[in-house]
Amino acid sequence: MELSNIKRVYLVGIGGIGMSGLARYFCHLGCIVCGYDKTATDLTSDLHNEGIRITFDDNEGCVPLNFHEPDDSTLIIYTPAIPKDSAILNFFTRKGFKLFKRSQVLGVISQSRFTVAVAGTHGKTTTSCLVAHLLKASGIDCSAFLGGISSNYQTNVLFGDSNIVVVEADEYDRSFLTLHPDVAIITSMDADHLDIYGDHSQLTESFNLFASQIKEGGVLIHKQGLPLLGGRTYSITNEADAVAQNIRIENGSFYFDFRNGDTLISDILLGIAGLHNIENAVAATEVALRLGVSPDAVKTALASFTGVKRRFEYIVKNDEHIYIDDYAHHPEELRAAIASVKKLYPAKKLTVMFQPHLFTRTRDFADGFAEVLDMADELLMLDIYPAREQPIDGVDSELILSKMKLWNKRKCGKEEAIEIIKNEKPELLLTVGAGDIDQLVQPLKQALQHG
User: Fold this and answer.
1) Which of 245, 339, 362, 401 is surrounded by the most beta carbons within 10 Å?
2) Can you tell me which residues bind ATP (predicted)?
3) Which domain CATH number covers 440?
4) Could you tell me if 231 and 321 lie in one domain?
5) 126 is in an annotated binding site
6) Was 122 annotated as part of a binding site?
């Protein structure tokens, strides 16, 4: 694939966060960009407004005529989340197009650039956004492909004048093995995506393989305690090469000191909340300092960082109600979100609304979900969001509820959940999940504020 030859790009599954970033990238280069996705979202609306043509009908008749014959100037990208029986996917296969995964295209884009790749079963989106913001705000600059919408820049792809590119390295379907970074961060390696990997040892093996692909002279930066060889470590609780110390909450904001072997940065205000985000900030700071960002510029940039959409995002924050929305969909992500909310607001009763994501993940981690959700004072449980999966006998959200000790728990539909919030108006609400629970955010905000 010669990127300089590409004039037309079609993305099958264009509405995904990673795919939409590529769509924006090629649109920025002046290519004709089209695509298909199953459902319309705010993100697909934004892409449409940026001049990208999208169909929501999986029908080969919806493919524009200039994408009917393969040639060197036409690129077809697909996401592994698209079903194998997709009519549009099969149309391109039948026509003789060579199909590229999103990760393969990202590998080609990044291969000639200084690449900072951020991997991990959780924490990678916020950490990659932090690295990109530290480089942008300090003037060193970078381009970036992010796994979420940066609140500072209101997009998931950034364009810069330097040769540095920051990419989120996704472990799903072993996608990150297309990357050969100069700097790699690994934030976590908890068991996940067992539908792909089979067991945790296979996942661990893939992360070690990813780490082995760092270019000669490059560096691995990883959380202290991960089963990885070599590299530099970071932590907020243990001794490591880079650490956060003196962590405290003042007037509802998190402060900490950063220290590594060479540098001490005192009294850093982090623009977003959460102990897990301080950990992410330590990793990002370690990278930024290595790339020439000054300690003072780090401190300024971390204070101005406003986070990522759906990552510990404040929806309502006033004297009567606090409402935070988070993408957490793995037990350890939930633990981090719930623990951070309780640390910030220890005197308030916490209502959690959770939408499990995937039947396989619910089956594999039902005990872990039950244990973590027991940390709430009240739970509203939605049905499982299936995404790409078919139902599994005996696996539903009741499976988690049945294992919980918390007495104040309810199973409810989406409309019922909105009514409950409208009537009961909880003082502290946390919505969590990676499915379509984000579509409830605005209705829940209205229900809390206006009834």
Assistant:
1) 362
2) 120-126
3) 3.90.190.20
4) no
5) yes
6) yes
